[in-house]
């Protein structure tokens, strides 16, 4: 099937690639590259490689900036299931930005057309798209760039004024939320919260790097591997890193500088999913958080029990997504019963 769509010729410069130079009309298949491969995770060699995010602009506290921080100008699209989107949801919540940045939450089921919007009656916890009235997240991407031909991922930060995507990279969205909206936050405590303090930036960047590669993405590289070699290449380094983190947390309350930073937040969304999903579904089963990592467990409870954090954990979406969307890994769609360790339990310091 074919349809006619405005096809934008991108600038020769890589960024920001969504700003068109001129417009031409072309005939194109409804099955674009991204669409055809939407549920194929591993490359031909059996390795999963995460794509680089495309929209990389930034909201700024400078009132004259293209994307100036303004109340109710920006809208965040997330999935409660996704660990990357979860980072943005928790920082939005802890900084009190829920009052000035709107939220849409996709259905946890991600099938051939990608992330879909549902009503809260259809799927409790889902929040439809009242900004663009999209049925699928792909429509939001095409509205920002009709020529978009990459994966339709969450999170997405949308600008209601310029009608475009500002950014779809979680690590950058959380930095914007951390700093750029501070002038609009009334609550003094929340305004002061700083998860990327200047004096700890070097240490945070360093720990983020190996945790991203071997843990946050390590679980995916293990779970989406389609060869034994690719799986083993990734699963051992994952547990080496968890052992290293356990050691750090045996003498430190938080990962860096004795305070809660973005390094903790970025790791935490993976740890919350570890026992209930990654141990079984992604075959990351050398150890579990509950039985083998008492300090990581204590730390996970510590963050969960910060007011506002627990409201961002939706285990029905998390388990429902992985076990029912990845049908090549779990063809029956049966969802295991355990939610992992109870993070609301009192903290035991070992
Ligand atoms: N680098 C991105 C990754 C986001 C990402 O991969 N999100 C996944 C959900 S966990 C997604 O939307 N995948 C849909 C797809 O790849 O088609 C970020 O950190 O924001």
Automatic annotation (TrEMBL):
Active site residues according to the UniProt entry: 82 (nucleophile), 220 (proton donor/acceptor)
Cellular component GO terms held in the UniProt record: cytoplasm
Gene3D superfamilies per UniProt: 1.20.1050.10, Glutaredoxin
Residues of the GST C-terminal domain: 197-329
Superkingdom of the organism of origin: Eukaryota
Binding site for glutathione: 115, 151-154, 169-170
CDD domains: GST_C_Omega_like
Site (Lowers pKa of active site Cys): 278, 322
First and last residue of the signal peptide: none
GO molecular function, one term: glutathione transferase activity
Protein name: GST C-terminal domain-containing protein
């Amino acid at each position: 099937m074919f349809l006619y769509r405005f096809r934008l010729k991108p600038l020769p410069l890589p960024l920001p690639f969504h700003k068109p130079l001129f417009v031409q009309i072309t005939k194109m298949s409804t099955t674009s590259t991204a669409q055809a491969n939407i549920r194929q995770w591993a490359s031909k060699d059996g390795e999963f490689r995460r794509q680089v995010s495309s929209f990389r602009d930034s909201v700024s506290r400078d009132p004259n900036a293209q994307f100036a921080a303004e109340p109710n100008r920006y809208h965040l699209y997330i999935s409660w299931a996704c660990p990357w989107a979860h980072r943005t949801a928790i920082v939005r919540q802890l900084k009190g930005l829920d009052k000035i940045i709107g939220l849409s939450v996709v259905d946890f089921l991600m099938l051939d057309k990608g992330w879909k919007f549902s009503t809260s009656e259809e799927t409790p916890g889902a929040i439809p798209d009242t900004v663009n009235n999209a049925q699928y997240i792909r429509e939001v991407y095409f509205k920002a760039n009709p020529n978009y031909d990459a994966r339709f991922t969450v999170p997405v930060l949308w600008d209601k004024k310029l009608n475009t995507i500002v950014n779809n990279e979680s690590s950058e969205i959380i930095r914007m939320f951390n700093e750029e909206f501070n002038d609009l936050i009334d609550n003094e405590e929340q305004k002061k919260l700083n998860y990327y303090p200047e004096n700890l930036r070097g240490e945070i960047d360093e720990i983020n790097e190996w945790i991203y590669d071997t843990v946050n993405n390590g679980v995916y590289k293990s779970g989406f591997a389609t060869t034994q070699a690719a799986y083993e290449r990734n699963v051992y380094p994952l547990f080496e890193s968890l052992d290293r983190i356990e050691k750090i947390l045996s003498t430190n309350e938080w990962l860096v500088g004795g305070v809660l930073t973005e390094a903790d937040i970025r790791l935490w969304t993976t740890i919350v999913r570890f026992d209930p999903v990654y141990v079984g579904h992604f075959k990351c089963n050398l150890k579990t958080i509950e039985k083998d990592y008492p300090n990581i467990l204590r730390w996970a409870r510590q963050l969960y029990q910060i007011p506002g954090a627990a409201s961002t954990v939706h285990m029905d979406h998390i388990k429902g997504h992985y076990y029912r969307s990845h049908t090549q890994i779990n063809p029956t769609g049966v969802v295991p019963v355990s939610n992992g360790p109870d993070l609301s339990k009192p903290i035991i310091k070992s």
